[in-house]
Amino acid sequence: MASKIPAFTSGLKPPSTSTSLSNLAKRRVPEIITSQPTEKRPRTTDDAHTSNTSSSRLVRSKSVSNLATAAPNSKSATLSRAPSSTLRPQASSTVSRPASRLTACANITKKVDSISNAISNKGVKAKPQTLESRMMIIEKRLGELETENAEKKDTITVLDSSKKSLEVHLKDKESAVNILSEEIDNLKKEIRTLEVSNATERSLLENKIGELEFQKSRAERERTNLEGELIASQKEIVGLKCSIAEMSSASAGMRAELEILQRQLNSEKTDNTQLRNNLSAATAEIQELQTRLRQEETLRRQLHNMVQELKGNIRVFCRIRSIIPSDKMASGKIPHLNVLHHRSLEVHKLNPDMTLNESSMNAPASGKGPSKFEFTFDRVFGPNSTQQEIFEELSQLVQSALDGYNVCIFAYGQTGSGKTFTMEGGAAGSESDGMIPRSVRLIFAACESLKSKGWVYKIEASFLEIYNEQIRDLLGSSGGNHEIRVVNNETIVTNLKVEEVTNEKQVHNLLARAQQQRAVASTSCNEHSSRSHSVLRLKLTGVNDDTTETSNGVLYMVDLAGSERLKESGATGDRLIETKHINKSLSNLGNVIMALATKESHIPYRNSKLTLLLQQALGGSAKTLMFVNVSPRENCINETVNSLRFAAKVNSCHIGTAVKNNS
């Protein structure tokens, strides 16, 4: 019989009384009764057999109860006085008991029935103490399990409460971000509304001026006609006076006609005076509206600068070069680069045995390390992004240059990652135009529209390259000594040709001339690798005679030479020297940006010609945008991660608030 007891009761002490047997029997009776179906139906043979079985069980249970009551044992009496809650769980707990507990109770019931039969049939006195003790321990264990279950539920409740609190906190943060986004959108909408309103008012005023001028010309013609009529009338009067004697009968009619003409003349003079007064009022109104228009332009510049400061004065855009035939990627997919969304990029290490560059990946020397890396920037452009989509993101910085700020836009990345295509583009006048042609087009269009608001701009362009730490003028004659100097808080290059441009075509011609002279060579990493840093400098000087305002902005468009590993490039001779100078200047550029980010007292601008030239554009008074270009090739993953890590450091920099240049 002991072998039928559930396994979790092994090792328990034997029961000491038979009182609990009585309680158990009493408990089994309502369980058996309540388990009967309540539905009324005809009684069958099976029902009779079930009823006999139940009655037999009731008899055996009562026998066990009587036997337990007759046993004179003080300890049993003590146990029988235990609280009913210890031996009989609550109804709600019984419902939630696992199936194993119900099975255990059924087994115990069978054992009790076996004991009752043994006592009735054999008359041998059993040992109820062992079963009662085990039943007590079983019930105690079940109570402990229920208590533990309640504690687990309390813990789950606390965790749910904490989760809800965190969700509320997260929603608060998201709400704050949404509020800031709405403020930025509202500012943009206000700017667009003001621009549309100004254009509408200007159009209405121009129409009104045209109407007034037409009325004026018509009044002048009528006045001329009346003056001619008046002169003719006066001549006629003189003639009539000469012949008054002969025409006395017609004199009264002529006088009447003369009076009518005189009244008409007076009326026309009155109308002419009124028209002159209206013209004076319209002229004053036009002047007032022009003053308001200039004030709105000033307000637009202030709001535009506020929006740019909210975005950050140093921003980083990441662009993945599109796949070209030389990449030999038949699938047309880039499995190791994944654009998570418009601001996040993930780099995967597809080959687990690939040896990673420790300096770029921060991996152990064996190359074993993380299988993926995630980077976040201000904007991420996938391989299918167009030049127009990219330019829409940086066009606001070009507008800041027109408003009088120093702006620097430069492309950084390994050789063959598409930097030159991003900055200069393909064929002129096509959809593949780069950031430089599109920026020039925007500048001249903005200058033309600002003329109506009193602004006149002078644009000066220069184009140079830094080759092996030597400055070359791409627009002037070869040779000559060029030095970088700072004069009146402005960086200039001596003996550098500067040309004034008045239209977009002139700038395109300058770009074509510069491309023919730029240093380009073939390496193992790139067949057409730029071996120098090219810098286009546009100085934008604006004057408003109506408001006496001035604007002095400088736009730097920089195409940096591509970084490459000496071992991978296979460079020798001149190519080796070029690679060393390129990597050194790019390293110095990174040092300058890190020094600006940490606000060090000394910024190492003079360590490189590139950083010295861009001193005014990289400092805290400028707005800077960095393009980090990456190659889709999997064998370039070391340089890709190296470039992305450097760009991530730049993106975390805060160089201060840009300052407008005023003369």
Major sheet size, sense and barrel closure: 9 strands, mixed
Distance between the termini: 107 Å
Number of helices: 18
How helical, in percent, are the residues?
55-70%
Note down, in words, how this protein is organized.
The protein has 663 residues and is α/β, with parallel strands linked by helices. 56% of the residues lie in helices and 15% in strands. The protein has 18 helices and 16 strands. Strands 1, 5, 6, 7, 8, 11, 14, 15 and 16 form a nine-stranded mixed sheet that branches. It has a three-stranded antiparallel sheet with strand order 2-3-4, with helices on one face. Strand 2 and strand 3 form a beta hairpin. The longest helix is centred in the N-terminal third of the chain and has 115 residues. It is flat and about 175 Å long. The termini are far apart. 27% of the residues are buried. The N terminus is likely disordered.
